[in-house]
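Reply to thread "Modeling small-molecule complexes from scratch"

Following up on the discussion above, here's a worked example others can learn from. I took a protein sequence and the SMILES for indole-3-glycerol phosphate and predicted the complex. Inputs first:
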Amino acid sequence: MESILDKIVAAKRVEIQQAKAENPEGDLRGALDNLPAARDFFDALAADGPIKLIAEIKKASPSAGLIREDFDPATIASTYAQHGATCLSVLTDEQFFAGSLENLRLAREAVEIPVLRKDFILDSYQLVEARVAGADAVLLIAECLSNKELKRLFDEAIDLGLTPLVELYDAERLSAVLACGARLVGVNNRDLRTFEVDLDHTIRLRERIPADCVLVAESGVRTHADVTRLEQAGVNAILVGESLMREDDIGAAVDRLLGRPGL
Ligand SMILES: O=P(O)(O)OC[C@@H](O)[C@@H](O)c1c[nH]c2ccccc12
């Protein structure tokens, strides 16, 4: 059966061809000249101290549908930063997540912390788009890429000054993730094929990930108890979207999640 991931990847390939036809790669690459330096996404997460939050700007998703009606990326970005998010993640997929590169641009302009382009990256064209839109980091999903593609996109991201966050769900993809040189590794707790979420998924994989890697637990994090459990298991950072985006008062929700008093 075709999974949602297969469906998204198929749609993404069409989208990439359309984007290339509208704005050829050569022209897009021209915009790389004179860009300000990227912010250091890796160092921000690798720093000492309590578990770090990558707060996600996500309007909708295939599993949840519309998550938030009242949606202003710049305001949400500032709220996240003011309440102690270390980095931001911005969904840029339009078809399935109601995101956009414009949202990324607006969010990045509103804050001083590093920002990740969250999308289904299959082609180096998307890395250039990310950098031009202001991204400091990109997500690479091991389940969407062959080992060769993963390695190539990983190296190209680094060449562009982007930090790759390499995500896996399947434990069998771990060797390819480590072989490409990833030091920032995300374990998705949500199986993108079935949408099932299990927080213990990251915890079970923890011991198989080298100590010099920064480990990010992704998806399904809801409560301060979840955060404490992940922190105690040696997880360095959490990537959280839905449970924060659903709240009327996003700032207060971040405070509660991190167990820190309001600022
Ligand atoms: O909204 P959640 O359950 O807090 O999850 C955030 C993030 O992990 C999730 O959006 C995500 C993780 N990996 C992805 C890959 C593509 C799209 C989305 C994702």
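What I'd highlight from this example: The chain is about 40% helix and 15% strand. The chain has a mean pLDDT of 97. Questions welcome below.
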